[in-house]
Amino acid sequence: MTTAVGRVGDDRLAASPARRLGRLQREGRAAYLFLAPALLFFCVFLILPFVFAIVLAFSDWGGFDLGTLKWAGTANFGDVLSFDGTFVKLILVNTLLFAFGSVFLATFGSVLVAYCIDRLAFQGFWRVLYFLPVVATVVAIGNVWKMMYQPAGLINGVLNKLGVNSIGFLSDASYALPSVTVVQAWASIGGAVLILTAGLKAIPEMYYEAAEVDGANSWHMFWSITLPLLRPALLFVLITQFIGGLQSFALIIVMTGDGGPVNATNVAAFEMYQRAFKYGAWGTASAMAMVLFVIILAITLLQLWVARRRGEETS
């Protein structure tokens, strides 16, 4: 009797790993089934277009019939990266100035706004107020600021009251790109504020209490406690802002129309749009997209490397 009971127990122990493995396999199949719509969307709208863009970068295509697709080798990259071309000398410079300028202004402004909101009453109201530009359309934002930048607009009206002559914010090549950069930074502050306020909420109050006991003022606490502990959220904001700034072109279309004056606001994404949809040079536009992709990847990896090095030095 004892032997029979022991044998049944051994059979159950031997069968339990098999049952657990079967249950895990069934759960895995169910998980993939639920993920299938998202994976299908990812493949159709991200992976396939990316592969097709790589093919187009090495091809000559007018954009209408795949039968006219011709292999061009690296000729498109040669045209894009040629020293005499405007892409490297002007458009990439404008793109980097636009991206770095908007990221600097947006990051500095979002840190300041988030720090102030964290110390105000009715924080939900202020977060919603600053988030409104994010949910507004680019067309609405661009047109409102375009009217404000006009010679008879609000900004020049204030300057005239102060005794300053009207400035051609969008008609003068010296002011056009900085003017659009300010609008891009203003429009992207709201999303960064939400992320940074969440990061500020995650900082324990005991650090500030201990620093206050040691006699630290607000500036010392901000520089020695807030910024170091806010680094993960700040890194995410920097990366997403850089990617958005390097890819942005809708605001430029709305505010300047053609990247003017004299290509002063012409950036890489806008030039790609024109080459593909206006001139039908899909191969050249795809080569530009690949160059921009490499630049975005390099800047992102550099940011991650710098953040990791700074984290190791402070740890």
TrEMBL record:
Q: Name one GO cellular component term.
A: plasma membrane
Supply one GO BP term. transmembrane transport
Which coarse location class applies to the principal site listed for this UniProt protein? membrane
- Name where it's found: Cell membrane
Regarding the membrane, this protein is recorded as: Multi-pass membrane protein
Family annotation (SUPFAM superfamilies): MalF N-terminal region-like (SSF160964), MetI-like (SSF161098)
Recite the UniProt keywords alphabetically: Cell membrane, Membrane, Transmembrane, Transmembrane helix, Transport
What Pfam families does this protein's entry cite?
BPD_transp_1
Keyword Kinase on this protein?
no
Name the InterPro entries on file: ABC_transporter_permease, MetI-like, MetI-like_sf
| Keyword GTP-binding tagged | no
Residues passing through the membrane, by range = 30-58, 91-116, 128-145, 175-196, 233-255, 279-306
Signal peptide range in chain numbering: none
Q: Where is the ABC transmembrane type-1 domain?
A: 92-303
The entry sums up its family as follows: Belongs to the binding-protein-dependent transport system permease family.
- Under what name is this protein listed? Sugar ABC transporter permease
